[in-house]
Amino acid sequence: MPGASFAVVKDGKLIYHKNLGIADLSTNKVVDDQTIFMQASVSKTMIATAIMQLWEKQKIDLDIDINRYLPFNVRIPAFPNDSITARMLLTHTSAIQDEWNTLGSLYIYGDSPITLSDFMREYFTPNGIYYSSDNFYTYRPGTGNDYSNVGSTLAAYLVEIISGDEFHHYCDTAIFQKLCMNSSSFLLAGINDTSRIARPYYRDGSSYFDAGLYGYPDYPDGQLRTTSTDLARFMTMYLQYGTYEGIRVLDSTTVEYMLQQQTPVEPSQGIIFYSATASNGDKLWGHNGGDVGVNTGMYFNMQKKTGAIAMTNGDGTASSNADLFVNTLYTYGITVNTDLNDLFPPCETSASTDLPVNPLTLIIYPNPSDGRIFVNVSEGADATVLDMQGKVMLRKTLIQGKNEVLLPSNCLNGVYVLHLLSKNGKVQTVQMLSVMK
User: Do residues 330 and 280 lie in contact, with contact meaning Cβ atoms separated by under 8 Å?
Assistant: First the structure.
């Protein structure tokens, strides 16, 4: 793998921090303290944190039908009368399957223009563009354990529905800002200087290939980008039972509850976090991650108040991967005494853009459309409908509130892009629109 960043924390202190290798092979840029790495499935620990914050406020029950919260129904076709619960989503026991022909086709350079809400609706509702019987397993919900990216993303969508805030923005305000994770974002749009991001590389023979800065509509399950010190602050919060530098993110009893067996079908499964055994026999809690050109790991032991992080911009191999690094770093960390120099770096200037987040909200219905749509917008905006080749099909000025839009007759069946630009020209949003006449 071209480059990596490592961190070890103990007793609330950063006792080891090391950067190695190259972040960008095209420029020979080295990995340094400012380098941001994509996290792949380590991202899911943010879903767990967000859900349990709402659980503490009694805004969600982990054991009732999620359809009580969702604007559409989700059912396993083989068991249409059985409920799916949030606990099942958080323990990979929901019988929701990753249909990779669909998921793989939706990887694009940059952030996906498909909103989380649209993707969830189209994946789970029978008339949806991405709906298939292959989206589900054939066992009763709660009786099997199969890792599910989309199931985890559905839990993130619950956060969005219940909080009334887009998931990425919820994490910005309820987690990242509280923990001084100012170089962290679920969206590329939330990072001012994307040259700080380690390019993801996959290996073919002796050559590395740049996979690009990519995204997908189910972004909560893997698209978090952060630095090793930012993630170390997050891990320290868990090791300190929900607090970091006097700021409480979770109750101590909530952290204890999350880090224990949650389902009879998989003893190692907590709330998203799962347990593993270090080479010395210690029980660790954490998560790892892998995606194209990405390999990460974060594990910790609550009793010894020690944890380790490894993040790399390569796929890794069986003998060289993030889990192996984390084990080596952890077993080193428990032997080291902390001292006064083991300090986290000062809180950085935010890596997020200074544009307002979600200032121009919109709702489109029906979507798919038969040629006539209604668009609700939070403020007046100029709308443009483009086909997938970028050809402008329609321009229209929208007023705040409900607008009726009649698409021109040359908008044949297919997918289009609705682009909105606010009246001051500074705020924009994009949403996919399907036409099925």
Answer: no
Task: Indicate whether 213 and 290 sit together in one domain.
Answer: yes
Do 197 and 58 belong to one domain?
Answer: yes
The whole-angstrom separation of Cα 38 and Cα 200 is: 8
Total length of the chain: 437
Q: Note down the domain range covering 430.
A: 362-435
At 357, the amino acid letter reads V
pLDDT at 97 over 80: yes
d(CA 153, CA 116): 9
For the chain, report the end-to-end CA distance as a whole number of angstroms.
49
| DSSP H or E run through 46 | helix 44-56
CATH number, position 427: 2.60.40.3080
* Residue 351 covered by a domain: no
C-beta separation of 257 from 33 below 8 A: no
**pLDDT surpassing 80 at residue 8:** yes
Q: Specify the DSSP class assigned to residue 74.
A: -
Distances (CA, A) of 171 to 28, 44, 84, 132, 220: 33, 12, 24, 30, 10
Q: In this predicted model, what pLDDT tens digit does every residue of 229-270 receive, in sequence order?
A: 999 999 999 999 999 999 999 999 999 999 999 999 999 999
The answer to whether the beta carbons of residues 394 and 76 sit under 8 Å apart is no
- In terms of pLDDT, which residue wins out, 428 or 272? 272
Sequence-separated contacts (24+) of 342-350 with Cβ below 8 Å? 342/10, 342/13, 342/14, 342/15, 343/13, 343/14, 344/13, 344/14, 344/229, 344/232, 344/233, 345/33, 345/229, 347/180, 347/182, 348/180, 348/182, 348/183, 349/182, 350/182
Q: Quick one: 307 and 427 in the same domain?
A: no
The total number of structural domains in the chain stands at 2
Please state whether beta strands 372-377 and 381-386 pair in parallel, antiparallel, or not at all (unpaired). unpaired
What is the torsion angle, in degrees rounded to the nearest 10, for the CA atoms of residue 45, residue 46, residue 49 and residue 53?
-160
User: Token pair for residue 39?
Assistant: 């996290």
Token pair for 285: 């809690």
Lowest mean pLDDT among 113-117, 353-357, 381-385, 425-429: 353-357
pLDDT (tens digit per residue) in 26-55: 999 999 999 999 999 999 999 999 999 999
Q: Are 213 and 194 in contact (CB under 8 A)?
A: yes
